[in-house]
Predict the structure.
Amino acid sequence: MSLIIYLIGFAFVIGGTAWALVSAGVSTEHVLIVTVILIGVAILTGVTRTRTRD
């Protein structure tokens, strides 16, 4: 459950970043690259922070 909450919060960060880049006039290709990188970071950090230790 906490992973989902973490990823929802990160989705807002990704959306805000993409919106800011589009508003600044950055090309769509670069916005997509940044978005994919941030999605990867969100998944990696979300799993490592919410994973229970064995």
